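Exam revision sheet. Question 4 asks you to relate a sequence to its structure. Input first:
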Amino acid sequence: MNLKHIEAFRAVMLAGSMTAAAKELFTSQPNISRLITQLERETGLLLFQRSGVRLIPTSEGNAFFREVERAYVGLQGLSNAAAQIKNLGSGRLRIAAMPSAGLTLVPHVIKRFQALRPEVTVSLHVNTSGTINHWTSSQFCDLGVAVYRSEASTCEVEMLSEVAAVCVMPAGHRLAKKRVLKAEDFQGEPFISLCHGDGTRAQMDEAFDRVGVERVLAIEAQYSAICCEMVRCGMGVTLAHPIVARDFAGPEVEIRPFKPSVMFPTYLLFPPHQPRDRLTLEFVDLLRQEHNELLENLEKPRRASRR
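Answer key, structure tokens:
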């Protein structure tokens, strides 16, 4: 039994006769008759009762047709999937991001992407940079957005950006009177810090230690967004990625540049030894556009204030 036998049987069931089935399949009536006879012999089933020129499906024939239709639905699904893969890659995009990007930048990009590709399913997975490296290298995710590259990771890596941290403080704070804050300004200030082990935390500590500034380090948090929320609650000041800080800007929060620069790198991670499909490349283009636009909008108020 092969696909030609099944096609002939299905055509006869749908068309009602061998002659009509032959026209549907662009072949001859004797060829259809031969294929049906071979199929009955192969399966051991009596598929049709012959009544003159008419073919009447038997109960076995009807039962077999139901199974054939189920198989054809599956084949049609495969055909649709193949067309989608040809046009869109897998039709699904899995993004892994650390919280500073996954809670701020990436959702904006997904909105833009879905406006262009509404038929594509996008899933966003937020976790630490170490986990993002693992998810991307194992091909669980198509793209990773992380703040550091794991030495154990086999991911292909591109730099998205490296931007300077800004100071985030409660509205009305004494430091808000200054346009630019220096490490020396934080002497004795309650400081909400990233947890030990974070690379940016080490940079921050070094900036203050270099000038002998002692902060009040009573609170630590794993992510910049949490630090900013604590600032909004009036619990202290912090240094944060400017895009993260932007989402907390408002009547309860003040944001100022900080010197010396403490840099927040952001990396794009790709699965190793894999060609980058169309969907991933389109998403990365939008990600870069959104990221650059956000940074430009952050700079505009500063430029205006200098005038």
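Marking note for examiners. The chain is about 45% helix and 20% strand.
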